[in-house]
């Protein structure tokens, strides 16, 4: 009877080992499947991104981008020139021309209006009251 119990015990231990191995294999398979699903999502994302890039390349050609960059550089250069003029960085030739024009204007005989000879009034006549107009509201641009 003891021998039979030992054989039964041994059989159950082997059964437990097999079951633990199967559970371990199943857990490994689940992990592999989950990892594969993540890889599939990454591949789908890459595929969608690649399609978007291809569409962008169809819409924007290199010539178009170069044209836009060139226009932007021209506009920046034009704005720089305006900034220099506004900042007063005139060339010496410009300043000489301005001085010559000023001299020509000051040497011309200008006709001035006649100054009135009557004395000024003591009291300033009251002007009609100005109606208060509502101030216009500033609206943010959209």
From TrEMBL:
Domain of life: Eukaryota
Coiled coil: 9-36
Pfam families: Snf7
GO aspect biological process, one term: protein transport
Primary site of residence: membrane
InterPro entries documented for this protein: Snf7_fam
Subcellular location, record wording: Endosome membrane
Region annotation (Disordered) ranges: 108-142
Keywords, in A-Z order: Coiled coil, Endosome, Membrane, Protein transport, Transport
Entry GO terms, CC: ESCRT III complex; multivesicular body
PANTHER family named among the record's database cross-references: CHARGED MULTIVESICULAR BODY PROTEIN, CHARGED MULTIVESICULAR BODY PROTEIN 6
Family: Belongs to the SNF7 family.
Protein name: CHMP6 protein
